[in-house]
Amino acid sequence: MHDNLVILAGGASSRMKKEAVIDNLSPEEIAQANERSKGLIGVGASGRPLLDYLLWNAKKAGYKNIYIIIGEQGELFKEFYGSQMKDNDFHGLNISFAIQYVPEGRIKPFGTADALFQAVEQYPELNTQFYSVCNSDNLYSAEALRALRETESPNAFISYDRDAMDFPLERISRFAIAKLDQNNQLLDILEKPSSAILEQYKDAEGKIRVSMNAFKFNGNTLYIHLKNCPVHPERDEKELPTVLLNSVKENPNTTVGIPFSEHVPDLTAKEDIADVKTYLAKYYPDLNWNSKN
């Protein structure tokens, strides 16, 4: 098992910042949606960020070292989770920050693979260890995060049952789907799947599986693929699924899809804020950082 969790929080949050007419949000919530990183939007009790709940689950799952990748304007993270760049104590979690710098000539960050590459350059010890990676704007369960810690596979991802996701069908249909063999080893990831070929991508249980960017990586073998990640031709970004597939091509049967069937709350756009608040009030009514659980 490993103790390292890298949280991706340096993105531009462009979809969250899009104009929208939402009648169930306060002016303060709209302002936060327009100004803050998605994981810092106050959707929890007493206006605490979504990231509180992800860190809570990470601690329950047994992680100890948390690396949060922030943008160049990410100082607000330090107000919540520690003023130093490295080794802040947040309720027993050791929190460090990595900065995803925007390359010269670009307006926005260069994608999730670039974020992770910059992080492991700043914390090279990760290149000799195993570590997990996830988004800051998704609330993964403690059970899913623990499964990433406990798997013996060198690389892995949580392979979610698409039908268990509590999202509108139109949104679900846009998710990239994973193709797994009979042993749940990753073979391929298909973007923008058409309904005509979905049958070919069902797993051994007859389920269509999607990734929500919850990974475990072998830092030693992944580094070269992070460094050499090509730019996605449509989105003009370097993306972790590309890195993962390139690693699989070079090292077959080293990446297992861990099957899970549960919803993963997601803060992508303003329309998601009320839904996430309702979910947290229902399932995390008494989050208490002083609890020993």
UniProtKB/TrEMBL annotation:
Residues 35-240 form the Nucleotidyl transferase domain. The keyword Lipoprotein does not apply. The lineage of its organism: Bacteria, Pseudomonadati, Bacteroidota, Flavobacteriia, Flavobacteriales. Keywords: Nucleotidyltransferase, Transferase. It comes from Flavobacterium ginsenosidimutans. Transmembrane segments: none annotated. This is Sugar phosphate nucleotidyltransferase. Pfam families: NTP_transferase.
